[in-house]
Automatic annotation (TrEMBL):
<dbReference type="InterPro" id="IPR001753">
    <property type="entry name" value="Enoyl-CoA_hydra/iso"/>
</dbReference>
<dbReference type="InterPro" id="IPR014748">
    <property type="entry name" value="Enoyl-CoA_hydra_C"/>
</dbReference>
<dbReference type="GO" id="GO:0003824">
    <property type="term" value="F:catalytic activity"/>
</dbReference>
<comment type="similarity">
    <text>Belongs to the enoyl-CoA hydratase/isomerase family.</text>
</comment>
<dbReference type="InterPro" id="IPR051683">
    <property type="entry name" value="Enoyl-CoA_Hydratase/Isomerase"/>
</dbReference>
<protein>
    <submittedName>
        <fullName>Enoyl-CoA hydratase</fullName>
    </submittedName>
</protein>
<dbReference type="InterPro" id="IPR029045">
    <property type="entry name" value="ClpP/crotonase-like_dom_sf"/>
</dbReference>
<dbReference type="Pfam" id="PF00378">
    <property type="entry name" value="ECH_1"/>
</dbReference>
Length: 244
């Protein structure tokens, strides 16, 4: 089964997360498929930039609790997006949860329609946004992200743009992205690559410094009793035992 849709228009390769049955959750297979597609784009001189988008009403629901990727695989995918010498632009018209926000933060530019919603829901199932913190924290407002990390509250696209999760939000995401994609088409491959390297240096430093510790933390938390209760409650559509 193909989990990543692909299309190209005037040098812009669009990669679509296409696992609507699981709300584009990050399964081992989806992570591997996206990594392979990004590798192809990196090698192809006909690709000037990449748009990462989705089918269905959810960009990404976070980790697939029935088939989660190993934390190392998610780290490598986030690093791949950040290190890629071509810009990656997120286009969101639906919901983004938990690990999906790591994908969003790893992208160089992120745009969403005002229909989109966002939430760091990890605390509600007994884990923490460990691995995704590496691209999220360097790019977001510290006080705001502390609130949303700790509460799991939902935020809208306007608020997501205000705190740095998004570059911009608008009623028509394609209209909003049109001048951005035009600008990328007018930019030289060398200019884009070297400029992206300047912009991503801080995120890469965080990945180099923290990847091992945060991968270990993620694995430990997902193997804990509270996480098992939280994930079971989520799958059974009930409150976990700690809800007051």
């Amino acid at each position: 089964m193909t989990l990543i849709g692909r299309a190209r228009a005037r040098g812009i390769e669009t990669l679509s997360l296409d696992a609507t049955g699981t709300r584009n959750a990050l399964s081992a297979a989806l992570v591997a498929g996206l990594a392979d597609a990004l590798t192809d784009c990196a090698k192809d001189p006909g690709v000037r930039a990449i748009v990462l988008t989705h089918t269905g009403n959810t960009f990404c629901a976070g980790a697939d609790l029935r088939d989660p990727p190993h934390p190392d695989a998610l780290v490598q995918l986030l690093r791949q997006i950040v290190e890629l010498h071509k810009p990656v632009v997120a286009r969101v018209t639906g919901h983004v949860r938990a690990g999906g926000l790591g994908l969003l933060a790893a992208c160089d530019i992120a745009a969403a329609s005002t229909e989109a919603t966002f939430a760091f829901t990890e605390v509600r199932i007994g884990v923490a946004p460990a691995v995704i913190s590496m691209p999220v924290l360097p790019r977001t407002d510290p006080r705001a992200v502390a609130r949303y990390y700790l509460t799991g509250e939902r935020l809208d696209a306007v608020e997501a743009a205000r705190i740095g999760l998004l570059t911009l939000a608008g009623d028509d995401v394609d209209e909003a992205l049109s001048p951005i994609l035009d600008g990328l088409r007018r930019s030289s491959p060398q200019g884009l690559a070297e400029t992206k390297a300047l912009l991503t240096a801080r995120v890469l430093e965080t990945l180099d410094r923290d990847a091992a510790d945060l991968t270990a933390l993620s694995a430990r938390l997902f193997d804990s009793a509270q996480a098992r209760e939280g994930m079971t409650a989520f799958l059974e559509r009930r409150d976990p035992t700690w809800v007051l």
